[in-house]
Design brief:
The chain has 152 residues and is α+β, with helices and mostly antiparallel strands. Helices cover 35% and strands 19% of the residues.
């Protein structure tokens, strides 16, 4: 064997040993998952779409700009196939996870999952799906990209 081949084999063996050692040091979470899984739920929140989305004062300018873009691109008014019709607003669905925090069914989830929701459902680990009622919500108090509290 030439020197380069021996070096490559030695490196491959070292990598094999390192991977085996790294896997041996990973903690086993199966017991934790088995114990806590019944308390974890999936949260599905739906917000019914309004006829107007966004600031109505910006709507006409945005529509005019979009119509001009589409006319230039497609050579006609509006989106192809719609012939000047406004697109129908669509419902918004948020998905997330939550945790059952009390025996009477209180669930804790992230604010952005349920923010503005009209309808909330939770799916339990045994696949049962239940309707939920929003009791309270706390908007984020820390600005994105900041560390520490207070939104500073």
């Amino acid at each position: 064997m030439n020197r380069m081949t021996r070096l490559m084999l030695a490196m491959a063996w070292l990598m094999f040993l390192m991977v085996g050692t790294a896997q041996a040091q990973l903690p086993d979470f199966t017991g934790l998952v088995t114990k806590t899984a019944p308390g974890v739920v999936s949260v599905v929140a739906t917000k019914t779409a309004d006829a107007q989305i966004g600031d109505p004062s910006d709507r006409s300018d945005q529509d005019a700009q979009m119509q001009e873009f589409l006319r230039r691109f497609f050579g006609q008014q509006g989106v192809p196939g719609q012939r000047g019709q406004r697109p129908m607003p669509q419902d918004r669905t948020s998905l997330g996870s939550g945790f059952i925090i009390s025996s009477d069914g209180y669930i804790l989830t992230n604010h952005h999952v349920i923010d503005g929701a009209d309808d909330i459902h939770v799916q339990l680990s045994d696949r049962r799906e239940l309707s939920a009622k929003l009791i309270g919500s706390d908007a984020p108090t820390v600005s994105p990209g900041c560390t520490g509290g207070g939104g500073q």
